Inverse folding.
């Protein structure tokens, strides 16, 4: 049987739509990490109703082991799962994969969002094709939450779009603002456009135009202007907007520096007997700091700009991290993330098309 | 008097060329930080002979205070200096500024290199116009040394070129390799090209071509291929090559993360009486870690690809930091940094023009 449509036997939630479709087989620790993560998340979200997709023979014993997860899950069986190293083009052909069926559930309205710890490239490709881009958005982006000295910052794009134009950047600002509202609970998040300092702007026309557009948009009061690399962790703005290449490099460079600091600090604490005793005394504070910087707190990287909530958990996460990804998805579902974007876009449509007319006029041969 | 040429009375070193022309008036702490820094550097470099340019009335008392600096310096007087916030275009018109005269000294062969803690934008603009680009190099770049868990890494470009093509990137690789040889003393530095992971390469044609060219070049054995953000501090390669926009963001993001870690750590050490005692016990190790990460150790940001050595010290540096910038300049002068670039380019010219021919052929209308 080569089913390409969602089968009639696709489980529907007797009490209404599922909150989330969860790929039970995605990630290094799947399926156990997924089920254990759902058990943790179920404690925090009373409304959580999950369509859990994967190999029933492996999922059922785990649901027996984690009754809190079992209480919120309906299992939909499939044998197929997408390996972590499969190319997106190949993954698209696996129409019965657990990841694909989870996307189908969102596309057909059976679930409001999808969470997977599986293959990122496959996930983005499937989301674009199955769930599709939100009307008015040119391209989906990848967003995530990072720690700052003050609180949290939302950064996007983190790699979905290597090359961007000003329109993409403006759309990222709209989506980032909606994300910060839904997930960080901020009433009016501030927005910064990542640059390398105002004087050196010449080469980057797209940044100049994007900034102009944002200053004229309904987001003007929340738009802080340009920010630089060090502003990300300084918490200068709640949202930092950039293209996918720069965002990805910034994110990974930051992770690298944090790892270096940790490595050097470990050496310090092991450098002498006194330092080892000192470590024991500061350990409670260090544990709190570690928790603050814990990547599991920030485990939900999100594909925004799609007709549904799509959250990617880190492939190597543990149950706590997977639960954090479910938290992010539930915040987005509960706080009407996409409605907030639609609302903004309806007020920005005129502005974006006015600029388009201006661009076309520039290209036209001038009348003497 | 409106002198536009170097005056005849321009001091010449009786024993030959000056090693460095130093802008005595550049930087927040000038001129004292400059003279004190030269005093420190004079201890470390026996061959150091400095043409110190600035306000004689302010420099002479300082040289009396720092006799070790006085022993290596010849003062050339000028009243004019370039403020830290002056625009490059305006700075170019100040033909008698201490920074300009220092550049003139290099252009006329009186000195081999220039060091200034002054206005960066002005310095790059002046260097391009007065000292000029090295034959075979399309555009100068800004390079600096950063700490890693293993040792040091050379990164470029850090902001001189916001938009780059593959040729610029290949040239950066050549210059970065020569810099790592001269300043880090590595016999065969390895080179990485900053990217966001091999799968997502499609959008960045310039990176793909640059990588191909490096694989065919005399640098092939040292070329590691693509690296990602986290590889910078992991010390995966000795040189990391990227465009000026990405490099600037990566550098500042890294600095920001390090600052955040320091802030959080300070809070930990002040969080309780026990933590304060713990801090005292680990302090010796922390001091060594601080020294390792000390920006003063890495205080020489360098403009590479010019007909002379051009080192920019941080504007807010202290004497130790200024001395570090002088160290970098002296390493480059002593170890024939530019000769090493010229040598490489002479072996790569054929490769670069072969590719040029290929590009032109692609553009031409195909003959059926």
């Amino acid at each position: 049987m080569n089913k390409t449509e969602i089968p009639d036997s696709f489980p529907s939630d007797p009490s209404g739509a599922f909150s989330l479709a969860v790929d039970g087989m995605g990630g290094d620790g799947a399926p156990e990490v997924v089920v254990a993560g759902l058990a943790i998340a179920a404690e925090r979200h009373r409304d959580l109703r999950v369509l859990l997709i994967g190999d029933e023979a492996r999922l059922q014993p785990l649901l027996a082991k984690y009754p809190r997860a079992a209480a919120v899950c309906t299992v939909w069986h499939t044998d197929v799962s997408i390996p972590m190293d499969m190319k997106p083009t190949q993954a698209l052909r696996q129409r019965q994969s657990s990841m694909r069926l989870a996307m189908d559930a969102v596309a057909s309205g059976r679930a409001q969002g999808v969470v997977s710890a599986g293959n990122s490239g496959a996930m983005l490709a499937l989301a674009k094709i199955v769930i599709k881009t939100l009307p008015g958005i040119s391209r989906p982006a990848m967003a995530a939450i990072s720690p700052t000295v003050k609180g949290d910052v939302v950064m996007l794009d983190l790699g979905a779009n290597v090359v961007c134009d000003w329109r993409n950047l403006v759309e990222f600002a709209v989506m980032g603002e909606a994300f910060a509202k839904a997930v960080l609970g901020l009433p009016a998040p501030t927005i910064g456009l990542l640059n390398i300092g105002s004087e050196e702007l010449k080469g980057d026309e797209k940044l100049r135009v994007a900034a102009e557009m944002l200053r004229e948009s309904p987001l003007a009061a929340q738009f802080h202007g340009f920010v630089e690399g060090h502003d990300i962790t300084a918490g200068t703005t709640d949202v930092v907007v950039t293209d996918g290449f720069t965002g990805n490099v910034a994110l990974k460079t930051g992770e690298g520096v944090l790892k270096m600091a940790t490595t050097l600090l470990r050496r310090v604490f092991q450098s002498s007997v006194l330092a080892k005793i000192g470590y024991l005394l500061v350990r409670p504070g260090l544990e709190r700091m570690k928790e603050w910087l814990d990547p599991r707190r920030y485990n939900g990287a999100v594909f925004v700009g799609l007709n549904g909530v799509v959250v990617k958990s880190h492939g190597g996460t543990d149950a706590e991290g997977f639960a954090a990804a479910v938290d992010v998805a539930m915040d987005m579902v509960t706080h009407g993330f996409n409605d907030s974007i639609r609302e903004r876009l309806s007020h920005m449509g005129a502005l974006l098309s006015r600029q388009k007319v201006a661009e076309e006029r520039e290209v036209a041969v001038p009348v003497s």
